[in-house]
Write a structure and sequence with these properties.
The structure is a homodimer of 155-residue chains.
Chain A (H helix, E strand, L loop, with lengths): L5 H16 L4 E2 L4 E3 L2 E4 L3 E8 L2 E9 L1 H12 L8 H21 L6 E2 L3 E12 L5 E8 L3 E11 L1
Antiparallel strand pairs in A: 1-8, 2-8, 3-7, 4-5, 4-6, 4-7, 5-9, 8-9
Chain lengths: 155, 155
């Protein structure tokens, strides 16, 4: 996992939320490299797999209330509780962000899998020393925090 | 999502658990095609993305106590609580199963992303009408139930 892979994901998230949700997220604190152990995550987790010149996965995680705001802005409709629109819209936003980041990593010829969205309580992920997760803490000034999390190995 | 994609995943799961864990899982009830709506899932969720001639994702989900038995058998070591071995071993088993299924789907030239493993409570996934999930209920006669869940679209 190279540090130069970070900016394409940050830029892709900023551009996507600006154009799709009319809101501008910002970096919120230091990058964290999770080399081993459990990682507590927000309630709403989107996962999309990457293949091509890398093998990896990208996650976008946020609390439900933040996700409902973001997806509501995307769909231009208020979301009051976790529903079909929330799950589909969240997966679609992640798909757009990962696609925009992949386009910036053009030398790597990244292909995207289908996004999967999970909600639950007290969720934890796990990082392996061999495939560390790079956590990029971000926030929407209006709504709250979220993370973009990337794990990639070159193949 | 074609129905003929089911058997490669079932066969891959059976072969993998037989050779890696010395246990023989069996199909446990009818396939379910989830075309829309929320799907309750077991506590332990492994996700791996697929690309190539398809775009998709494969999940393996089971309760923690079943996962601890299965991964313990894989590692030939008892697992008494959710730990690093459980998460890494579960991801690795899913990786082997998805790889074996991909090999059987050779015309589709499937590439695998990195597996991601999440644990939590009251977890739900969501199916879209455009990308339904096919749930394959299975069980280990000794330990209990689990699901293999596949969503793929041809590209």
């Amino acid at each position: 996992m190279k540090i130069e892979y970070v900016n394409p994901f940050v830029e892709a998230a900023v551009t996507t939320f600006k154009s799709m949700c009319r809101v501008e997220p910002v970096r919120d604190g230091k990058l964290e490299l999770r080399e081993a152990g459990f990682i507590n995550t927000y309630e709403l987790i989107g996962v999309i797999g990457l293949t091509g010149g890398v093998k990896g996965a990208v996650l976008m995680t946020m609390d439900l209330n933040v996700g409902m705001k973001a997806v509501g802005a995307f769909l231009m409709d208020e979301i009051k509780e976790p529903n079909t629109d929330l799950m589909d819209g969240f997966g679609e936003l992640l798909n757009i962000i990962a696609g925009a980041a992949a386009a910036k990593l053009e030398g790597l010829h990244v292909s995207l899998a289908l996004p999967t969205v999970v909600i639950g309580q007290n969720q934890q992920m796990h990082a392996k020393q061999s495939n560390p997760w790079l956590l990029i803490p971000m926030k929407f000034p209006e709504w709250g925090k979220f993370n973009i999390e990337v794990s990639m190995e070159e193949v």
